[in-house]
Design brief:
The complex is a heterodimer.
Chain A lengths: L2 H17 L6 E3 L6 E3 H6 L15 H8 L5 E3 L18 H12 L5 E8 L2 E8 L10 H17 L3 E7 L7 H5 L1 H14 L4 E9 L1 H4 L8 E4 L10 H8 L10 H6 L5 E2 L2 H15 L23
Parallel strand pairs in A: 5-6, 6-7, 7-8, 8-9
Antiparallel strand pairs in A: 1-2, 3-4, 4-5
Helix pairs in contact in A: 5-7
Chain B lengths: L8 H19 L6 H20 L3 H8 L7 H8 E6 L12 E8 L2 E8 L5 H6 L7 H16 L4 E7 L6 H5 L2 H14 L4 E10 H8 L3 E5 L3 E3 L3 H9 L5 H8 L3 H6 L5 E3 L10 H19 L4 H14 L8
Parallel strand pairs in B: 3-4, 4-5, 5-6, 5-7, 6-8
Antiparallel strand pairs in B: 1-2, 2-3
Helix pairs in contact in B: 1-2, 3-11, 4-13, 6-8, 8-9, 10-11
The chains are: A alpha/beta, B alpha/beta.
């Protein structure tokens, strides 16, 4: 290489990176193909302004929109053993983890927080599909247990937003064991008489659906979310026929009696507040955006 | 032995030769082949010992799926008396992939539940190859409730490739059915013991095996996904099942190290299918041993012990 590469390249890079400031980004709706302005899409909680298609939203963005004044405190999740099986496929598991952490800036596929929604104190958990497809391993199990323990301690209801491709294969049998582990956590809540509301988001599949995501007192789904145990491709291969339109989508499950409600993201906050306050025997909430509560009560780190 | 696995081909050849010699001797009595045939038998046995001494995880999967391996029905017939099947989920159907009912184990009344794969084409289809539909889990929930109410221990025998990936099974909520069955396992105040006798396939297995005490036959497997399924997802090539089986740590030996299971039941030389009676007897002894440990515990202690076991599981990894 010569002095030009050393000198010129940084300049070019800086031009490119300046072009990539999010405000200038347009994204295309996967459903209707409309080009959507980034900020408009963000203001609409990642729901297409043209067709109403619900796109993925990060746990942090979701919580910012849900909690009063966008304020919430993170609850620390006990760190599990890294790579318990010393798993290696085409890549080593720790390398996959490193890449996922770098890409998302998160520790793992679940975020546990506490805060107030419409002045209603809650503990909330959201699964992060962008982190290794939201897959359930030891960390996710620990997160649900930590959330349930915190909810019981603070006597707050738990709201869980699920999104996962299923179990994390790189943790083998230990990922499977998160099914009973998370179920124990849910039992703690139920015994403490606390509401457990599940919001199933796109997609929720496999062992996640077959454990904590199906054990809610109230089961709500976002429109169009794929919710299943075995995925549509596996089923088509087994039965060798085309599946009906909308099979395993939220609306289909609602029709088949597997869900209580399908609710658009824009209405979700109000609906959760209404349901939780009724289950807890509280008076109706004051509607609308509220300033952040003072101070946020938690035993955990912010 | 008629049904050899691919890695047993050398044994098949030697045993075939020995059989040929004996057939020859039967047709021409003057030929003396006794010594030669015995030598071949000895060689076959030595080969069997060396092959089975250190089975790879993939070979264990093959042994666990052997069509002549004793299945749930064989254990129920041999180890239980007064077996009275109880059918149906009171909702939609009776799932023939799941057997279950009241029975006596060593004279003690119990509830026994298990996956049955079937032993020939007709019964395999009838049993859906041991793949339960939602009704199977809901039947198990009903039986566990019955056991809980009348204070009967529950014994589950696990042998399933996994839940059935069918349209109706999904429409009728198999995820919910599995979640509820797992939850039920954790709620009942009676001893719950489980033996993985063949394949412990994913959620379909967990729904029955969330037990106080879990035993596994030496060459059975228990996994979050089949090696073929894992290979096609992570290696993008279903033929990499050997590598996947290795990586998944699905053998009884690894699962014991991980403290996911509590005991390993030794199999006869050459796998359970080569000596079914001995295998079934050993499983009976293991069930008796596990029940004896749990019988003194009161309801709350049983529930608490089961929960604690799963809450702490996996914390130490392979060092557990």
């Amino acid at each position: 290489m010569n002095w030009i590469t050393n000198y010129v390249r940084p300049t070019i890079n800086s031009i490119f990176s300046r072009r990539e400031v999010p405000e200038n980004l347009w994204s295309k709706c996967e459903s209707c193909g409309t080009m959507l302005f980034h900020r408009e899409l963000k203001d609409n909680l990642n729901v297409c302004t043209s067709c109403g298609h619900h796109m993925a939203i990060t746990p942090r963005a979701r919580f910012t929109a849900l909690f009063d004044g966008g304020v919430f405190a993170e609850i620390k999740v006990p760190e599990p053993l890294a790579d318990p099986l010393q798993f290696r496929d085409q890549k080593k598991y720790p390398d996959r983890m490193k890449a996922a952490r770098a890409a998302t800036g998160e520790r793992d596929a679940m975020l546990v927080v506490t805060g107030e929604m419409g002045r209603t104190p809650i503990v909330a958990v959201a699964q992060d599909f962008s982190f290794m497809a939201g897959s359930m391993g030891m960390y996710v199990g620990n997160a649900i247990i930590a959330a349930a323990e915190e909810a019981v301690k603070l006597k707050r209801p738990l709201i869980l937003f699920s999104a996962a491709g299923g179990a994390r294969m790189q943790e083998g049998i230990l990922s499977l064991m998160q099914m009973p582990r998370s179920t124990v956590a849910i039992q703690m809540l139920k015994e403490a008489g606390l509401p457990y509301v599940v919001v199933l988001t796109h997609p929720t599949t496999g062992g996640v659906t077959a454990s904590y995501a199906m054990l809610g007192d109230v089961q709500i789904a976002e429109p169009g979310a794929l919710i299943c145990f075995a995925g549509p491709r596996v089923i088509e291969q087994t039965i060798r026929e085309k599946l009906p339109e909308g099979f395993q989508r939220a609306e289909y499950l609602l029709d088949h009696g597997m869900l209580d409600r399908v609710t658009a993201r824009a209405r979700m906050r109000d609906e959760l507040i209404t349901i939780i306050r009724m289950l807890q025997g509280l008076p109706p909430a004051v509607k609308g955006d509220l300033p952040p509560p003072q101070p946020v009560q938690t035993t955990a780190t912010a | 032995m008629t049904n050899y696995l691919d890695f047993e081909r050398p044994i098949a050849e030697i045993e075939g030769k020995a059989e040929e010699l004996r057939a020859l001797a039967r047709s021409t009595p003057e030929t003396d082949v006794g010594g030669e045939a015995a030598a071949l038998d000895k060689k076959a046995k030595e080969l069997l010992v060396s092959l089975y001494k250190d089975l790879t995880p993939w070979r264990k999967c093959q042994v666990a799926r052997h069509p002549e391996r004793p299945h749930c029905k064989d254990y129920i017939d041999a180890l239980f008396t007064d077996y009275t099947p109880l059918a149906g989920d009171r909702n939609f159907a009776d799932d023939h992939a799941v057997m279950g009912g009241l029975a006596r184990f060593q004279d003690r009344p119990v509830v026994v539940i298990g996956h049955e794969k079937g032993h020939d084409t007709k019964t395999r289809i009838e049993r859906n190859f041991g793949m339960a539909r939602p009704e199977g889990y809901r039947k198990a929930i009903r039986l566990m409730d019955l056991a809980d109410r009348f204070n009967l221990p529950v014994i589950t025998l696990v042998d399933t490739p996994g839940a059935y990936p069918g349209k109706g099974a999904e429409e009728r909520g198999q995820a919910e059915a599995i979640a509820r069955a797992t939850e039920k396992c954790l709620q009942i105040g009676v001893p719950l013991v489980s033996v993985i006798i063949g394949e412990g396939g994913s959620g379909g297995a967990v729904a029955f095996a969330t037990a106080n005490s879990v035993a596994m036959l030496e060459h059975s497997v228990y996994s979050v996904i089949s090696p073929e399924g894992c290979a096609s997802i992570l290696w993008k090539d279903a033929e990499k099942m050997r590598e996947a089986a290795e990586a998944l740590r699905l053998t009884a030996q690894d699962l014991k190290k991980l403290a996911v299971i509590d005991r390993i039941i030794a199999e006869p030389l050459g796998g359970a299918h080569r000596d079914r009676a001995t295998t079934i007897g050993a499983v009976g002894d293991a069930i008796a041993g596990m029940l004896a440990e749990l019988t003194p515990l009161k309801r709350k202690a049983l529930i608490d012990a089961r929960r604690k076991k799963f809450l702490t599981m996996g914390a130490k990894g392979l060092a557990a």
